[in-house]
Amino acid sequence: MEYLYLIPIAFIAGLVDAAVGGGGLIQIPGLFAMLPHEAPSALLGSNKFASIWGTTSAAFNYLRRIRIPWKVILPTAATAFIGSLIGARITDLLPSDLIRPLIIALLAIMLIYTWRRPTLGHVDANRELSRKDVAMGMLLGALIGFYDGFFGPGTGSFLVFLFVRFFHFDFLRATTCAKVVNVTTNAAALVFFIPAKLVLFSYAIPMAIANIAGAQVGSQLALRGGNTWIRRLFLALAVVLLAKLIYQQWLV
Fold first, then answer.
1. Longest dimension (CA), the chain
2. How far apart are CA 70 and CA 237, in angstroms?
3. 102: number of Cβ within 10 Å
4. Residue of 231, 249, 250 lying closest to 26 (CA atoms)
5. More confident site: 21 or 75
6. Contact at 8 Å (CB) between 106 and 41?
7. Model confidence over 18-41: pLDDT tens digits?
8. Contact call for residues 143 and 84 (beta carbons, < 8 A)
9. How far is 99 from 151, CA to CA, in rounded Å?
10. CB of 145 closer than 8 Å to CB of 84
């Protein structure tokens, strides 16, 4: 029963994450909903393992078509790696009763955020990036990396928003950059999760395969301009999962 639910969820999470970010908002609640008796840190580790494969495959698709400023993105990815490694080491110290309400709150916030910004990043300023931008990227990388290692869901969406806000990228360029940084944060977190035996490989490997398939579809749709219906799908699924988690947390 768990596989019948988690594999489609991983496919959809990979599809949504590749196109608009926020795949963790679908995949993490799905893991918590279907495996409520597992340790929260093991569920977060399994999510990272599945996600990194989909994110990497999406990044390769985007990089074939979209030019990105490596002089900013590589330092950003480096600080994100360090921040994620630190964040991941903290997750095992938190109890389930604390983590699930945080996921619920974040899911609600991201629903509102996505609903109110349907045209985020449609115009690219194409300006020359400065040393100040490099420093800003490193700061943002450290903060978002720590968040991704510690908690995770919505990291891709946060990165896209921040790249649009501070560097004035369009949606596709910001998404491509976000995927590169997101690969490094997932890798850093797994440096902690795998040796600590906090990845449920019996679930994570099939979910990784489904995540790759979803990421291939999602990145191709995004490159072809198919963002509108994916965003609607994300909102609909997030509402369902939010309701399920609220029920499990306070009504069971």
1. 54
2. 34
3. 13
4. 231
5. 75
6. no
7. 877 778 878 888 898 899 888 888
8. no
9. 8
10. yes
